[in-house]
Design a protein that fits this description.
Elements (H helix, E strand, L loop, with lengths): L5 E4 L4 H12 L5 E4 L10 H6 L7 E4 L2 E4 L1 H11 L11 H17 L6 H11 L1 H26 L11 H15 L8 H10 L3 H6 L15
Parallel strand pairs: 1-2
Antiparallel strand pairs: 1-3, 3-4
Helix pairs in contact: 1-3, 1-7, 4-6, 4-7, 5-6, 7-8
Pfam family, one: GST_C_3
Family: Belongs to the GST superfamily. Zeta family.
Cofactor: glutathione
């Protein structure tokens, strides 16, 4: 019998969160291995052997050791083709979904990376860091809003779930976490509200994990 997949992740890591949603949607049971980013476990010698980039998530599945959230999601979708299909077959829809996912993955998330924020606090202080973060996250959300106005139906791209949706929910959570207002982005808020109704998204939420601090659970 194949061994259960293993996911190295952290409850509040948006990249890990995306993969948790994909695993839940595909109904893949897995072992949850905690990597506490706040205490620097990702910088340990032991973890560096697993991923020299010292980042999560890592997914061990099918005898493979996979890194980077979007390629992991694509692998899961290609090897587990049951519905929902997260990478659309239609090339136009697929391009739109991937573009939204990349706005978040490459154009927003790196600015809120734990290591980046720690460096910013050390160099420019907490207040300037918050101003910097608000500027770049708002700029990214403005791009997402523009894209969703053109592409969204019930979800990010039409009425079927795609890789874009798996990226959106964790990023909206991060906006709230960093006190970045989304009041000017009603399409984002509407789509996010629809996604949060889905059981797989609820199961994967940052506040529903085994390493979620007690003060966040159930909120």
């Amino acid at each position: 019998m194949p061994s259960k997949p293993v996911l190295w992740n952290f409850f509040r890591s948006s990249a890990s969160w995306r993969v948790r949603i994909a695993l839940a949607l595909k109904e893949i049971e897995y072992e949850y291995k905690i990597v506490n980013l706040l205490t620097g476990e990702q910088l340990s010698e032991e973890f560096t052997k697993l991923n020299s980039k010292q980042e999560i998530p890592i997914l061990e599945i099918d005898g493979l050791h996979l890194t980077q959230s979007l390629p992991i999601i694509e692998y899961l979708d290609e090897t587990r083709p049951q519905e929902p299909r997260l990478i659309p077959k239609d090339p136009v829809i697929r391009c739109k979904a991937r573009a939204i996912a990349e706005i978040i993955n490459s154009g927003i998330q790196p600015y809120q990376n734990t290591n980046v924020l720690k460096r910013l606090v050390a160099e420019i202080g907490e207040e300037k860091k918050n101003e910097w973060l608000k500027h770049y996250l708002t700029k990214g959300f403005r791009a997402i809003e523009t894209a969703l106005i053109q592409s969204s139906g019930k979800y990010c791209v039409g009425d079927c779930l795609t890789i874009a949706d798996l990226c959106l929910v964790p990023q909206v959570y991060s906006a709230h976490r960093f006190n970045v207002s989304l009041q000017d982005f009603p399409t984002i808020l509407r789509v996010n509200a629809e996604l949060e109704k889905i059981p797989a998204f609820q199961k994967s939420h940052a506040h529903a994990q085994i390493d979620t601090p007690d003060e966040f659970k159930g909120k």
